[in-house]
Amino acid sequence: MSPSQTMKILSAAILGGALACVASGARADTKLEGTYLAPEGGLILQKMVFKAPNIVTLTMMTQTMRGTYTVDGTDVIISMGGQQTVFTLDKKGCLDSGGVMGKVCKA
Fold first, then answer.
1. What band does 30 get if pLDDT is binned at 50, 70 and 90?
2. Which residue has better confidence, 10 or 45?
3. CATH T-level fold of 31-106
4. Is this structure's pTM higher than 0.85?
5. CB 70 within 8 A of CB 77
6. Do residues 36 and 107 make contact, with C-beta atoms less than 8 angstroms apart?
7. Which site among 3, 14, 26, 59 is 20 to 30 Å from 107 CA-CA?
8. Does residue 69 or residue 27 have the better pLDDT?
9. 60: buried, middle or exposed (CB in 10 Å: 19+, 13-18, 0-12)?
10. How far is it, in rounded angstroms, from Cα 84 to Cα 78?
11. Angle at the Cα of 40 (from 55 to 106), degrees rounded to 5?
């Protein structure tokens, strides 16, 4: 086998492994439904309400805004007004942005 054939096979194996890891990380069964509240009222983000199929309503500083969301593994990506914020879904089912937005947990 020539070195170029070996590299092609190795590249295909690495790509296949990477795709398998991505596919297994994406939790298609993860459904976000209902109301999530910030512990202790939250500084900026007070509430997130998830509705089917991918609609989310956020209440921040007493204003309510509507956006969309996607789930990619343990990341929940909220898109609103051309901006995206990534929240991490923790083992307790809470969503944490790790920043000023803070954390919300299922009510």
1. low
2. 45
3. Lipocalin (2.40.128)
4. no
5. yes
6. yes
7. 26
8. 69
9. middle
10. 5
11. 35
